[in-house]
Write a structure and sequence with these properties.
Elements: H1 6-10, E1 16-17, E2 21-22, H2 31-36, H3 38-48, H4 56-71, H5 78-94, H6 96-106, H7 111-126
Antiparallel strand pairs: 1-2
Helix pairs in contact: 5-6
InterPro entries: A10/PebIII, OS_D_A10/PebIII_sf
Signal peptide: 1-18
Keywords: Signal
């Protein structure tokens, strides 16, 4: 399994606010609608890959994502973590090529990937 976009849209919901937490300014963005709309989702991916224009949320996400990956999303609130996981699972299962590209760009060493796979394994055992 790959990793990165956990935060792709969760962090669309999280702009850096101070040093301890990301802002909840975007927590009410309807991520389900974004994930269901191929055009909108593709635009966010292009933004993240620097292949197209970005919305304000996309620009903030690009700035925040490296820190969130490095810290394991420790500055994310519960809603942001849940949203991030939803986005990651969606991209891994429905857009694996985009997931791979995002992973290579934002997690080239695979550090986040390893942590996320450990998290998924714990989840499976608990279920």
């Amino acid at each position: 399994m790959k990793s990165v976009s956990v935060l792709v849209f969760a962090l669309v919901l999280a702009v850096v606010y101070g040093q301890n937490k990301y802002t909840n300014k975007y927590d009410n963005v309807d991520v389900d609608t974004i994930l269901k709309n191929e055009r909108v989702l593709t635009n966010y991916i292009k933004c993240m890959m620097e292949e197209g224009p970005c919305t304000a949320e996309g620009r903030e996400l690009k700035k925040t994502l490296p820190d969130a990956l490095a810290s394991g999303c420790t500055k994310c609130n519960t809603k942001q973590k849940e949203t991030a996981e939803k986005v990651m699972k969606h991209l891994m299962s429905r857009r694996p090529k985009d997931w791979e590209r995002l992973t290579k760009k934002y997690d080239p060493q695979g550090n986040f990937k390893k942590r996320y796979e450990e998290h998924l394994e714990k989840e499976r055992k608990a279920a």
